Amino acid sequence: MTPFGEKVRALRKAKPVTxxxxxxxxNVSAAYLSALEHGHRGRPSWDLVQRICGYFNIIWDEAEExxxxxxxxHPRITIDTSGLSPKATxxxxxxxxxxxxxxxxxxxxxxxxxxxxxxxTK
Length: 122
What we know:
434 Repressor (Amino-terminal Domain); elongated; 7 helices; single chain; 2 domains; 122 residues; 67% helix
């Protein structure tokens, strides 16, 4: 599941509305919406994110957050390390190899390191 899919599912459950009903209301197939929620489809289009925001009456900061989650939710990514250091290439390859077996607490720690490093460069 992607961050976007997790958020959409939570919004849908809170409404409450079935996946089938939401899909019909948004004029997409239930199979597509299910695949999007489960991370089996690529990131959603800007138009679909906007329709989902309208569907749940989401505005301002929450709409921006949903758009941010959509951008971070492509289940298959490519990392171009050409021109970077050998260590950067090794890191990208090790992460690609090992992420499936990483427990959530380790993923959280890695994300904390990246967030702290990003804060230092601002």
